[in-house]
Task: inverse folding
């Protein structure tokens, strides 16, 4: 434990570099808008490996109209009858937009495979079609980046324990998450087979070591920025206009409107 704590990135170093990288993400966003780029970033990995917290840092200063998070619930009965990739296609970005998938079509190669939510034939069909699907996305001009967040079994269990004890993060822990503890090796084998079939040159997988969440966030964001040939777009020149003189408007009496109580005054 002492060695693990010593290896953790100091908070001050982390926060300074994170802010610098987030400023670069804003530049990336403006380039995406100006050039009409379509950027898709896939976040996959172990439960509690830090995907969600990394997405939060990526989007913290971005315009939600440009950078959108897609975290789909389990498919409906109707969606189960569709082509498997169909429900994901409708969330792909148009020109000038970024979509971050908090889990993606790779659900079939992970949780569906391990938990028996798909048939063997459906799973094999996915492994054949996924590389074709992603090659089509790239060929059409979409920038596709895929990140797998890796964490050890002991660290995952410790994070589950902290979630269980923290009322603010308890909602992050589901029965499916706890099931992953007992199926650790099954998930490992599924991940290995998935990489064999879908780690293609047009859309390679990038593994993010996530024992230290601070390091993993910085490493992932820095890699994303380095992998996209963005350039700084000069912002438009804006000036505050002079405020016009009053024309005699008077505000209605405060008693005519309902105000939020001043809770802060009681602190």
Result:
């Amino acid at each position: 434990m002492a060695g693990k704590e010593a290896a953790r990135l100091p908070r001050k170093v982390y926060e300074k570099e994170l802010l610098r990288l987030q400023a670069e993400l804003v530049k990336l966003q403006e380039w995406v808008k100006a050039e009409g780029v379509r950027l898709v970033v896939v976040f996959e990995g172990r439960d509690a490996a830090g995907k969600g917290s990394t997405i939060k840092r990526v989007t913290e200063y971005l315009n939600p109209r440009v950078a959108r998070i897609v975290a789909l619930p389990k498919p409906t009965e109707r969606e189960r009858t569709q082509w498997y990739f169909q429900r994901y296609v409708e969330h792909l970005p148009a020109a000038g937009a970024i979509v971050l998938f908090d889990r993606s079509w790779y659900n079939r190669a992970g949780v569906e495979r391990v938990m028996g939510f798909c048939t063997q034939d459906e799973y094999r069909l996915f492994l054949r079609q996924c590389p074709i699907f992603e090659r089509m996305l790239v060929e059409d001009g979409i920038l596709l980046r895929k990140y797998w967040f890796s964490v050890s079994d002991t660290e995952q269990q410790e994070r589950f324990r902290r979630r269980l004890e923290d009322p603010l993060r308890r909602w992050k822990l589901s029965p499916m998450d706890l099931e992953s503890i007992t199926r650790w090796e099954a998930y490992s084998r599924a991940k290995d087979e998935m990489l064999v079939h879908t780690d293609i040159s047009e859309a390679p997988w990038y593994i993010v070591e996530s024992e230290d969440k601070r390091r993993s966030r910085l490493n992932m964001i820095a890699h994303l920025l380095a992998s996209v040939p963005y350039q700084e777009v000069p912002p438009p020149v804006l000036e505050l206009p002079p405020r016009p003189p009053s024309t005699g408007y008077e505000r209605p009496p405060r008693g005519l409107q309902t105000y939020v109580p001043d809770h802060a005054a009681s602190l």
Remarks:
- The longest helix spans residues 11-35.
- The mean pLDDT is 94.
